[in-house]
Amino acid sequence: MTAYVGATLWDGSGGPPQHDAAILVDRSGHIARLGPAAAVTVPRGAAVMPLDGRWIIPGLVDAHASVARWMLSRFLAYGVTAVRGVGGAPGPRCGCAR
Fold this sequence. Notes:
The protein is mainly beta. It has one helix at 72-77, and strands spanning 2-9, 18-25, 31-36, 47-50, 55-56, 60-65, 80-85. Helices cover 6% and strands 41% of the residues. 7% of the residues are buried.
């Protein structure tokens, strides 16, 4: 289990951002619990990742991109978790899966 604590959480549901949030992520990578840090109990033995001064937001989508394989890690670094490549036919030239 990993606990991400102290960040501002914006979940995109229409509500205001939640300051000083805690998110518990289990070993399979699924969110087990989230909420105000004061209301979420971090289990003993969990790895704690302090994120004070940072934001957690839903993954971003780039719906119109020219994509090459070398770009994928950069998309992730900037929070883009879904890309719709429009730069040509899928295949080895663009680095896209067939």
